[in-house]
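Dear Dr. H.,

I hope your travels went smoothly. While you were away I took the liberty of generating a structure for the chain from your last submission, since the lab meeting agenda had it listed for discussion. I wanted you to have the full record in hand beforehand rather than looking at slides cold. The sequence, exactly as received, is reproduced here:
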Amino acid sequence: MSLKVVHTDDAPKAVGPYSQAIKAGNFIYVSGQLPIDPKVGKVVEGGIQAETRQSLLNAKEILKSEGYDFTDVVKTTVFLDKISDFAAMNEIYAEFFSEHKPARAAFEVAALPLGVNVEIQMVAYKE
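The corresponding predicted structure, in token form, is as follows:
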């Protein structure tokens, strides 16, 4: 199986020693996406819903750079700073995954990088 580092300027650069994503065969493993606006390099303002939207838009651009989209996503993981944000996050998440609903885990963590409220990672597969 071949491995490929995936990078697009349409999503934020990694904030550490990792790749935006790795393509392994027909799978793409998208690293946890923070709600950073790639145009300005800063965390978006507006709370959990704005941050969820930006995190998903970042993941969408990474997938798109390899010809994938959200209908190819098989698994997501949502890390929340506060589980009390679950319902508000879910409202935005459902806009991106309305018909196609991949497997998902969502849970509260002690803290997230840059003090954000949400981070979202995903795995996609395409024949």
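Two observations you may find useful: The longest helix spans residues 48-64. The radius of gyration is 14 Å.

With kind regards,
E. W.
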